[in-house]
Amino acid sequence: MALDPGIIFIGDLVAIFSVYLIINLSLNLEFGFGGVPNFGKVLAVAGGAFVMGTIPFMVFGMLVDYGALEPVDDNIMLVHQINAYIEAHPESVLGVFAITLIVAVAVGGLLGLASAYPAIRLRGDYLAITLLGFGEIIRIIGINHTSLVGGTLGISVPDMLAFVPNEYRFLTASFVLLAFAGVIYLLVARFTKSPVGRLLRATRDDDLALQTLGRDPVKIKFKVMMLAGMLGAVGGVMYASYVEGVVAFGYDRLNWTFLPFVMIIVGGMANNKGVLVGTFLFVAIRKLVIYYNDSLDGLLPFDIIWLDYLALGGLMILVLIFRPHGIIPERPQKTESLEKG
Amino acid sequence: MTIILFDGLIYASVLAVLCVGLSLTYKITSVPNFAHTSFAILGMYMALIMAKVLDVSVYLALPVAFAASGALALFMYYGIIRILQKKKSSLISLIIATLAFDMFMIGVLNIIADGIRNTYQVNSRDFTLRSLDIVIGGDGGLPLVFVVTLVLLAGLALGLYCLLYRTSFGMSLRGAIENESLAQTLGINTRTIFCFAWFLSGGLAGMAGVLMSMWFQGDPSLAAIMLPSIFAGSIVGGFSSVYGAILGGVLVGLSEVVGTSILIDLLGYWVIPYRPVIPFIAMIVTLLVLPGGLIQLITKYQKRKNMTMKKAEEEKEDRREEEDGVGA
Fold first, then answer.
1. Given an 8 Å threshold on Cβ–Cβ distance, is A310 in contact with B287?
2. Which of A216, A230, A290, B179 gets the most CB atoms within 10 Å of its CB?
3. Does A129 contact B80 at a Cβ distance shorter than 8 Å?
4. In the 8-state DSSP scheme, what is residue B282?
């Protein structure tokens, strides 16, 4: 049964929105609240996606007899075989996906720690440069280390929802992603409202004052980088499982570092509701642009993709100049004692 | 072997010229400019347009690229950085603005590349102008671009020294960098000086781009590929020192080319795509071991030398005083 194009549009919108919401919440945690300019956000996202491209094959390897098939070389056949197994044993997905998520969280945390380590004690600009470098390196490794995620050709991953009947498969995926994103949103919102959230803002605003109160800003920054890395990796797993594949070329600076920055700055930094608004706005706009892309094709003497770069770059500059606090600006947090006066 | 020598020296010199511009603008504006490579790519396309579309000598592209990329840098400084600084934006916002400008320029440069291909049927991606270059002494001789690149780097080092330390303009420039408001109270027009420095930085990058496309390849994607190398060069050198940048750029450039060729011999051809990892490691090691860069090492050594000289003099004086005291 073919799905209605309108439903496909909305389902895809919800799924991509959920993926970006997870990633943007993590970026907001480290950048908006913690003040760590992670220009290598793509590192954690790609790390999570690469885990999704490797770990399920290993775990299913214990359940299914692969024979002589290799995850990368005989990718399509193997994925087909695993999908058939998932259809027969839906309960296996829970375990495999849980293991994948745990590994991804561990990898994301480690990547956050490792990428912050060289420069976290130095000034913000050095940190920014190092993190940007890390983001470029992971793409080079992904593209060239073929046995990891298939190199330039990429790799297909098992469909975790293969047991759902075909006509519901697509919408179920969107729903599951939205549920994950919703839970993470609530957790992050609670986290940032707690005293830890205030601690993070204090690290961002005045680390000297923080030191006089006996806190170590470097330690706090490490912790928030790890936490954000973990969440970013979860986002990567979600995206890779949604598109049922990992292509290293796709994990570039525009889509997974710059776009999240645009989204949270336009929405409003250090403000989870702002992230919600910014993420929805941009995912919807981009979706519409892609939807109407074909009608523009051929009218212009160049590839339409480049307009995306022009628009996002130009818009970011304009927002920074004219509305640096975003659509929903950060509000001072009211504590109980403050409310009592 | 000679190919590696040419490759290494040309790449290292081009990198050093780019590092100088990056460090110069960083020193003035204290913003690491992530759009610096896009000035170089603009230069590359100026070279392509001059050589393939207008059919004139590719060396004419050097002044054209200098002017075009310089103007672009000036626009970036005046239209974005200056405005944000006036609005008291944070350093991170400024960095994001340079990243955004880089994204914008990726779009613009790719549109230029597509436009050249579609209008003039000229290959505008992964192009090289090496065959158009003049080779001194016939086949197997010295390519002119090699000479020009080395001369440019040497001239830059010498010219900057003369400009900064031998002219009153240079003195104003150094003063404006050290303390902008103090320089203003002395009647120095800091705005003109900063504009000049940004123009110079962009123009140099444009020339580097022209030279790059005459030996290696030119492509818009190089902006993202070369960015880590340039930052690595500047940081290895010490980031806020122009001479450190020359040193760091040459070192990183040579280690990239020569290091890769050594690793190919040792490990095999699969290492080639991992070349960008080398400058990255150089940068990380520098930040961990010597965050101030090579120039810190040199100034430390000089300081120590001055200190020991001062100490020796002081001791001498003390002794003399003692002797005088004894004498009285």
1. no
2. A230
3. no
4. H
Q: Tell me which DSSP letter residue B273 carries.
A: G
Quote the minimal CA–CA distance from A49 to chain B in Å: 21
Q: What is the pTM of this model?
A: 0.90
**Interface with chain B: mutation pick from A203, A221, A255, A309, highest number of B CBs within 10 Å:** A309
User: In sequence order, which residues have a C-beta less than 8 Å from that of residue B137 and are 6 or more positions away?
Assistant: none
Closest CA to B190 of B306, B77, B90, B328: B77
Distance between CA atoms of residues A71 and A118, nearest Å: 35
Q: What are the boundaries of each domain within chain A? A: 5-332
Question: How many separate helices (H) and strands (E) can be counted in chain B?
Answer: 13, 2
B residues 72..111 contacting A (CB < 8 A): 80, 83-84, 87, 89, 91-93, 95-97, 99-108, 110-111
CB pairs under 8 A between A and B: 135
Q: Which of B96, B115, B288 sits opposite A316 (nearest CB)?
A: B96
Q: Do residue A317 and residue B80 have CB atoms under 8 angstroms apart?
A: yes
In angstroms, the Cα distances linking B3 to A86, A155, A290, B129, B278 are 56, 38, 46, 17, 20
Q: What percentage of residues in chain A have a pLDDT greater than 70?
A: 96
Q: Is the pLDDT of residue B141 over 80?
A: no
Residue ranges with strand state E in A194-320: 245-246
How is residue A283 annotated by DSSP? H
Residues of B in Cβ contact (< 8 Å) with A125: 30-32, 91, 95
| Cα distances (Å, whole numbers) of residue A340 to A52, A192, A196, A197, A199 | 49, 21, 21, 21, 21
Chain B residues with CB under 8 Å of A261 CB are: 96, 99
Q: Do B107 and A140 touch (CB under 8 A)?
A: no
Q: Is A189 exposed, middle or buried (0-12, 13-18, 19+ CB in 10 A)?
A: middle
In this prediction, residues A94-111 reach a mean pLDDT of 95
CB contact under 8 Å between B106 and A316, yes or no, is: no
Task: Please report where in the chains the tokens 């699969």 appear, as a residue.
Answer: B270
At residue B42, the 3 state secondary structure works out as helix
First to last CA, chain A: 62
What ipTM score was computed for the predicted complex, to two decimals? 0.89
The secondary element (H helix, E strand) that includes residue B299 is helix B294-327
Distance to chain B for A107, nearest Cα, Å: 20
Distance CA B76, CA B99 (A): 12
The pLDDT tens digits of the residues spanning B222-250 come to 988 899 999 999 999 988 888 899 999 99
Within 10 angstroms of residue B300's Cβ, the number of other Cβ atoms is: 12
Q: Are the C-beta atoms of residues A233 and A107 closer than 8 Å to each other?
A: yes
Both tokens assigned to B160: 């900057």
Quote the pLDDT of residue A341.
56
Q: Residue range B254-271: average pLDDT?
A: 91
Helix (H), strand (E) at residue A294: helix A293-296
Half-sphere exposure of A163 (CA within 13 A, CB side): 11
Distance between B103 CA and the closest CA of chain A, angstroms: 5
Quick check: A313 and B115 CB within 8 A? no
A256's torsion region: left (phi>0), alpha (psi -120 to 50) or beta? Answer: alpha
CA distance B236 to B245: 8
Residue of B121, B105, B104 lying closest to B41 (CA atoms): B105
